[in-house]
Amino acid sequence: MKQSIKTIKERLFDPTFNDPAFLQELLADERAGVQKLLQQYEKQLVKQQLLREKYEEMMRFENEAFRQGARFIAGLDEVGRGPLAGPVVSAAVILPKECQILGLNDSKQLSAKKREELFIEIQNKAVAVGIGVVSPEEIDRINIYQASRLAMKEALIDLAVKPEHLLIDAMTIETDIPQQSLIKGDARSISIAAASIIAKVYRDNLMKDFHDVYPFYGFDQNAGYGTKVHLEGLAAHGICPIHRKTFAPVKQYL
Predict the structure, then answer these.
(1) What are the respective helix, strand and coil percentages of the chain, to the nearest 5?
(2) What's the rounded Cα separation, in Å, for the pair 195 and 92?
(3) Mind listing the pLDDT tens digit for each residue in 156-172?
(4) Residue 143: which region, alpha, beta or left (left: phi > 0; alpha: psi -120 to 50)?
(5) Residue 66: exposure state from Cβ atoms within 10 A (0-12, 13-18, ≥19)
(6) Which of 138, 177, 182, 245 is deepest in the core (most CB within 10 A)?
């Protein structure tokens, strides 16, 4: 008796599936539903292979550091330079040498759902994760560029394991640890991509919490960026304590 389409689908798309004989049986099954499942399965295999190739490509900077003797390599990235409100957040992530987290990429290129999934996987697999948060007041005092560097230094200090090499997205920081600055590093290095995702999800969650306190600006949806809802909230209610007072157009409401 032939298995139902539902049963075949559950078996075929189980992450642990590895049964060439069963695939041969399905190829001989003339049911349109089975053939459609096989087409979907083939597409998934191609997608997974492309993700593996992308991952290997994004490992080249880490592999070079490993070849030079580094054991612990930290990727650093920041999120939140452009918003009109909220802190700038940085993350530092050390991934194990033998680690594979398929789908790592610049956090801006990923859906919120995918970021959340990867956030959990990174937390579970990382050797160490550090977070640095610099307040709006400090941003206004020292400027956003210096605040971003400070957040990165705080994230580095927050790591439970001291790295021996740093890969940093388009920036350098003051440290005695050898570092490499990579333009668009969050799309070129798995460690920086992981840091980008951690920082993005962490900051988005902070801004959702701020929305509960300051509900007029849509922080839960715009993360503090200058969207139409945010600007309308500024016009109607003025600034709140987490607005960056040196940023236009916030400063016009002082």
Answers:
(1) 55, 15, 35
(2) 5
(3) 999 999 999 999 999 99
(4) left
(5) middle
(6) 182
